[in-house]
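P.,

For your records, the input lines for the assembly:
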Amino acid sequence: MAKARIKLPESTKVGDVIEIKTLISHVMETGQRKDADGKPIPRSIINSFQVTFAGQQVFAAELHPGISANPYLSFFMKVPGPGELEFTWVDDAGVRVVEKMKLNVV
Amino acid sequence: MLSSKPDRRKFALGAAASVAMVGLAPALLAQDAGEGWEQTVKKLLGDAKPIEGKVLLDLPEIAENGNTVPFTVSVDSPMSESDNVRTIYIIATANPQPGVATFHFSPLSGKAMVASRMRLARTQDVLAIAELGDGRFLMSKRNVKVTIGGCGG
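Structure tokens returned:
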């Protein structure tokens, strides 16, 4: 998996509801397709995504082959205070991508 | 390729640590082979009768490219301790595997809204089912006309 991109607001206040946008490159192979020789191409998708803030769950998703390649996810968080967000993507091969980002709370 | 077992264990640990995740099966939308979307919906709802509408599923009326169809799903909820959305399920009724995604919210969510992109194999109805904190369900259906199917079948 390649690098993920995450977009947070530049600055926030306690109590704000902010939108968090994430994008990660991944083929999200459905397992339904066949190669040129007619052999099925094995499924290979990101199946789970989790976001925590200061160790507490914010948002989680289970993804299935119906999610497009290079999964984009946008969701919301009510800012409880300053802290760090941790984003974790896991694919079928068990590969994990973990990104951490500090939230700028003024 | 590793089996999904370690991930599932990790997920269960995360779930135990979070109020919002307690009691949720991690792979509710993962279908058995040949399972139709009706069975998937039945498994989710049990005997509960969903309230129609109230969960807003925003999809294009016509999707030119079924490989990437943008969608937004939301419920107008205060996301408070007593009134909140726990989970939203997205189901594409005519895809080879109807389960698209399951989204879990938490007390930190602030707003029950998610946007992503889905594959649609052909013209079909897409369902959004929201499970509320009090155990009730909301359901909406949107028809999408697909010009070029996704899933590369």
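Two observations worth noting. Helices of chain B lie at 5-16, 37-45. Residues 90 and 128 of chain B are 5 Å apart (CA to CA).

Regards
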